[in-house]
Design brief:
The chain is 17% helix and 17% strand. By secondary structure, it is an alpha+beta fold.
Length: 223
């Protein structure tokens, strides 16, 4: 079976606790295109359960890709790798060929490449990229000195293990910074965990390998 076209019999959650595009809500309206021979388009709400890995501009492939692919494969859940189409700090979006090379590091699982040309996923869940720094100045939209990005909680209101201990990445229960608020230059992968009922269970910005990832992925089988 091609994991890119796996179906689910689960019904969409009738009354999510948050609006589409936020943790606790359904995925936003839009579609992605599979970067394979068929270039088949799929509506985002039809992709469940699933783990998305949103790759920022300038991302250097790390071990979290292979780990998420391995964990998702063991849970029989798709892991979809997608580039953030927004440039960041003068760096262009990661091209599909580089995503394929990154997916090739997943020797014990499968990372399927999809394209989100409209940037629906990135705008909903990934940090807002800063622009290139002006000559002799700070990057536009960078975090002011003395301030720190806020941390919020996953769906359900309980702080995640990442929020408590600093492991597993930066959790976000609101799908990233508020609209118009710029974040630090994104360097890590944003992982979006979607349950069988279509609800985004959790968003991890700058996800890193660790024991927390396994429980997060396995929870999607029954969540």
């Amino acid at each position: 079976e091609n994991p890119a076209y796996r179906q689910t019999a689960a019904q969409l959650a009738p009354r999510p606790s948050a609006p589409p595009g936020r943790a606790g809500g359904l995925l936003p309206s839009g579609e992605v295109v599979y970067a394979d021979r068929d270039h088949r388009a799929r509506n985002l709400v039809d992709l469940r359960p699933v783990v998305f890995g949103i790759v920022p501009a300038g991302y250097r492939c790390g071990p979290v890709v292979a780990e998420l692919a391995n964990l998702a494969g063991r849970a029989e859940i798709d892991f979809l790798l997608v580039a953030d189409p927004r440039p960041a700090g003068g760096r262009p979006p990661v091209p599909v060929k580089d995503l394929r090379a990154c997916a090739g590091t997943a020797h014990e699982g499968t990372a399927t490449i999809v394209e989100d040309h409209a940037g629906v996923l990135a705008r909903s869940y990934a940090p807002v990229p800063i622009s290139a720094p002006p000559p002799g100045g700070a990057p536009s939209g960078s975090t002011p000195p003395g301030s720190a990005p806020s941390q919020s909680t996953p769906s359900g209101g309980t702080p995640s293990a990442g929020a408590r201990s600093g492991s597993g990445g930066r959790p976000s229960g609101t799908g990233g910074p508020a609209p118009g608020v710029r974040s630090e230059a994104p360097t890590g992968l944003t992982a979006v965990f979607v349950r069988p009922d279509g609800v985004v269970n959790e968003v991890l910005q700058s996800a890193v390998p660790g024991p927390d990832l396994g429980s997060r992925v396995m929870s999607l089988r029954t969540g």
